[in-house]
Design a protein that fits this description.
Distance between the termini: 42 Å
Number of domains: 2
Largest sheet: 7 strands, parallel
Bound molecules: adenosine monophosphate
Strand content: 5-15%
Radius of gyration: 23 Å
Number of strands: 14
Length: 443
């Protein structure tokens, strides 16, 4: 067993990183390594393959960038082609990783490039002709460039799969494996995921890693001590809108993120919130890349201080000063919840998260609380208290003890008939698998 690391007294100087990288670390203002950096950097420096579970906002990007940059610096290469490839699930995350890469490599002569969908194909081809050492990419566009023979990853030294669980959830498994096929077999591979219990991640790790070491820093159930978690009960969406406006007008925060489960709802909230003179923007996957980038810029610089987003933003987004996250809709599961709240309380800052919960969402939120082994503080907003006060009877699990069937037998029976009629009508018609339907709707 490894000795317990003494993280509190460690410094970046103990990690034997190149001077030029330590200078960059000082410049960006990191005082000491975070837990994931302290644990992952030495193994990456030893060229080991790694499987790491790291909490969103834990400093995982620098945890793989710093030792990778170090390794590239100490073994100069004469070969042509990309030396390190970082794959990310979303354009926003790729953009942020690229920015961090540029900051951390600023005193070196290592060059890097960004390859994502939604950007000019020709520009990316000419970028690749300059032979950057490091590429940060989303899988789809990278595969297109591979198909056109515009990128050479045959001498790749390091492959990093960031937020692998999300990449798989978004349906990129085949793309990632097709990219891996093209890579040098002797490469080092680092797989970062929010969770290690994800079946797809376990399978992917089997396929792409060799003799790897596992660093399980957080299980998703660890407390988010620096994030205060509250919930407010709501009657319906009209009531939720009132609560949301009140919170955004009265809470103390620098920047706030509001999450909805669908793009339509995100769009719908913009008007009413602007009506309250709030500086609001919207971010979701139906917007073209230019608008998405512009929105992120406005949010970063503070021109707007509230963004209403779908889960797309829950992963990629790293904006300083987000200290309020409101779940206008309760997310569909605990993992999405963690990614959403992970947008605040980043790198030890503190934050607050508030879930607006109606009667149909009670069981989901109590499932999430159980999954996280955490309790939500129930909050009542004076003057805006609704009729819904939680279920009358609660099971030990925290869920309502009255099943929907018992609560509304007539409604349930009517729904069954409707479903049967619809199914009859749709016989022979192709159905979109539920997961894809949901992803299409959310992103
Ligand atoms: P990540 O988990 O990589 O998305 O990082 C979350 C945030 O933490 C980013 O804004 C990083 O710039 C910041 N960060 C990374 N490492 C450190 C560190 N050692 N000390 C302070 N902040 C850090």
């Amino acid at each position: 067993m490894q000795p317990t690391p003494n993280e509190s007294s460690s410094s970046f100087y103990d990690l034997s990183l190149q001077e030029k990288l330590l200078k960059a670390v000082e410049q960006v203002g990191y005082e000491k390594p975070t837990a994931v950096q302290y644990q992952a950097i030495p193994s990456i420096l030893e060229d080991k393959d790694l499987l790491v579970s790291a909490e969103t906002g834990s400093g995982k990007t620098a945890a793989f960038l710093l030792p990778t940059l170090h390794n590239l610096l100490i073994r100069p290469s004469e070969k042509f082609g990309i030396r390190a490839l970082i794959l990310a699930p979303t354009r926003e995350l790729a953009q942020q990783t690229f920015s961090q890469c540029q900051l951390l490599s600023q005193f070196t002569d290592l060059t890097s490039g960004l390859i994502t969908g939604g950007e000019d194909f020709k520009k990316q081809q000419s970028l690749l002709r300059k032979n950057p050492a490091i590429i940060v990419a989303t899988p789809g566009r990278l595969l297109e460039l591979i198909a056109q023979d515009s990128i050479n990853i045959r001498h790749l030294e390091v492959l990093i799969l960031d937020e692998a669980d999300r990449m798989l959830d978004m349906g990129f498994s085949d793309d990632v494996l097709a990219i891996v096929e093209q890579c040098n077999k002797q490469r080092q591979t680092l797989l970062f995921s929010a969770t290690l219990t994800h079946y797809g991640v376990i399978k992917m790790a089997d396929k792409v890693l060799k003799n790897h070491k596992t660093i399980a820093l957080n299980t998703l159930h660890d407390g988010h001590d620096n994030i205060e978690q509250q919930m407010v009960l709501a009657d319906d969406y009209e009531h939720k809108q009132k609560l949301l406006a009140w919170l955004l007008l009265n809470e103390t925060y620098d920047k706030a993120l509001v999450f909805t489960n669908t793009k339509i709802k995100a769009d719908e909230l913009r008007g009413p919130l602007r009506g309250h003179k709030l500086r609001v923007g919207v971010l979701h996957g139906d917007m073209d890349q230019k608008d998405r980038n512009r929105m992120m810029e406005l949010f970063r610089e503070g021109t707007i201080n509230i963004v209403v987003a779908t889960d797309l933003a829950a992963r990629g987004l790293d904006v300083k000063g987000i200290n309020l996250v409101i779940n206008y809709d309760v997310p569909r599961n605990g993992i999405d919840y963690i990614h959403r709240i992970g947008r605040t309380g980043r790198a030890e800052e503190s934050g607050r998260t508030i879930a607006l919960v109606n009667s149909t969402e009670w069981n989901i939120i109590s499932g999430i609380a159980r999954f996280l082994k955490q309790k939500f503080n129930r909050r009542i907003i004076e003057g805006l208290q609704g009729k819904y006060n939680g279920p009358k009877k609660i099971k030990a699990s925290g869920k309502s003890s009255v099943s929907k069937k018992k609560e509304e037998p007539k409604k349930a029976a009517a729904k069954k008939v409707k479903v049967r009629e619809r199914d009859k009508k749709n016989i022979g018609k192709r159905r979109i698998p539920k997961q894809k339907e949901q992803a299409a709707e959310t992103e």
